[in-house]
Amino acid sequence: MRSFLRCSLVPVLLIGSALPALAQLPGFSMGKQYHIVRTGPDHWRLTGQVELEREGQKFFADVVDYYANEERLEASGNVVYVSEQSRIAADKMVFDTRRRTGRFENASGTLSLGTRVERSMFGTQEPDAYFYGETLEKLGERKYRITKGGFTTCVQPTPRWGLTSTSATMTVDEYAILRNAVLNVKGVPLLYLPVLYYPIQEDDRATGFLIPQYGNSTFRGQMLSNAFFWAISRSVDAAVFHDWYSRAGRGMGGEFRYVAAPGSEGSARTYVLRQSAAEATADAGALPESRSYEIRASAVQRLPAGLRLRGNVDYFSDITTQQTYYGNRYDASRRQRRYGANGSGAWGAWSLSGTYNSSELFFSSVDSTIDGLAPRIAFSRAPRKIGNAPVYWSFGTDYSGIIRTWKSGTREVEQGLTRFDFSPQIRVPFTKWPFLQLTGVAVWRNTWYSESIVNRQQVEEPVFRRFFDLRGEIVGPVFTRIWDTPGNGYADKFKHVVEPTFTMQRVTLIDNYDQIVKLDSYDYTFGGTTRIGYGLTNRFLARRQEGARRNAREFLNVSVSQAYYTDERATQYDPAYLYSFQGLPTSKFTPVSLLVRATPTAEVSGSFRLEYSPTSDEIISMRANGAFTRGGVSVTGGWSQRRYEAFNLATLRSDNYLNLGTNLRLKEGRFGGQYIFDYDFANARMIQQRIQGFYNAQCCGVTVEYQKYNFGALSSSLLRNDTRFTISFTLAGIGTFASPLGMLGGNTTGPRGF
Questions:
Q1: Is CATH 1.10.4080.10 what the domain over 4-202 is classified as, yes or no?
Q2: Domain map (residue ranges) of the chain
Q3: Cβ-count burial of 668 within 10 angstroms (0-12 exposed, 13-18 middle, 19+ buried)?
Q4: 146 partner at 20 to 30 Å CA-CA among 202, 411, 661, 743?
């Protein structure tokens, strides 16, 4: 940093002594100097405290020789060069004032790089670059070459990080290329690269290599990830990435993204993994050497005439590899691969949509089900009033080619068929009284199936299903009470609203119900059945001061509901309850559902749901969630418990999970941390833990993270456990050094290259 301190001499040079000029140098504005001598027709020598300025360039030195014919300046002794973008201090300088190029010996300087560095993350550090070298060449207006020197964007008396190299070429607002580059943090060498491409432009998107990332995993071993980012245009980019694992193999992939217009965008990502033989599961033993791949893509496109197209692909070739290599609970327990497309349009009250999709759900590495629509075409008419009467009519049609295949090893059982449904509807609302609302609905449903059930076997014989669905709903009478509480610390006025609800639904007899192939909830409609639903909702509101405004807030909502069926089979498939489709013992009464939602302030919220079966006198399911946010502190948590029928097992099982997440950011984000965990009470084990802490200084930051996964606690997971420890560095003006993201993890999320 000896040479860097020369920059501090500039104020001294500017002050100088008030000695008069002896002569005027042609083409220059001159400050104060001790002496000027013309030694030849085109040669002037200036000695003393020399200060020159020409076309926005300033020169300071003890001795200056100027050759007019060549427009060349030669300076020595406390040399300082200043331009709009740079400031350079050196022992010696040779400068071409016409081409604005020059050579500096034993030089150091700073470059202005604009405002692209996020200052709030690193204090008040200015977004400039500091550089030094045995020689520095100014090759043009914005281009520099450094020999045996270094580079950093941490312009401090003692830089916290820097890059050294045998040679470096920098183009301001474009890039820097360093050869034999070494990254040093606090004087400690951490990383060597033969060639380093580093963007130094205000545009956040630049073509180049992303920062290599390093990590460690008990299963995968040492991990190294690198990537190349290609900024094709302002709206299109691509990346190629590579992951290396010391124990588990290596992978390569690519990503492409585009934005064509508002509402029209897409991305595609692919990855291929060459997996080495490794122990991954406790029950399956070693994983054999294999090759697998994954594709993820999505796109949305707006078309003329109100049309919109959507498409998505989320496909992996091997479920074992998929769950083994992912690094979070969601992906490690994800069991589905799917793809599909949809087109839709709306013209006033009319709407049309077409859908094609397929989804395969895995229960093990060899057992799965495939569901989908190939295709589904839906056409509908929104409710329209009939004359002047308070009666509304509408209709909907649905044509679906339904896919359903059961797979177990090499055995496959297909249950797919074609279904067409037509359902005109009449709706009669009654809203004359504000305290009482009555609505009546009549639906005539006609459904055609290409296949049916005969002697408990699915055969290619069409069948029709016809029935009327008659519904009535009553909300009220509504009871309200208001209290004025001017001395209350929470609110100056409270309101309590009581809303009873009553519904009745009658489905006429379906005489061929046993012949219907039941593939989804659409088909589980029991005929000759009456449903009576009843409930009570209590709403509590408060008028309180929130900031500069006085708002009415619903701080508590408590609702209780239950339903009665004349046919107990229908209670199994009521979508209003969490227990539906779980195979639990039922009666004509559904469980009692209790739902509580609380939002006492904008910072605090929570909910609780419980389903209790009076028939078996047991709680079937419970869920609780809460959140708190204030300043840099946020806490979220949840707990759930339920009973269900295990797949392919005639036994009831229970689960009981707790999750918690906390985030802390203090001192304007300068330091903080995060703690996340998921706990399985049923098996008394932690599913995952994540502990993270970070600190950002003026020029750099450090993040320490510990992760532990025990995916064996999840019935659908193939990976038993993995422990990881990572340290990541964030450098102002460069980016982040961290562990790779794992499979499909080549870090392409960074906005610019490295």
A1: no
A2: 4-202, 382-397+415-576
A3: exposed
A4: 202
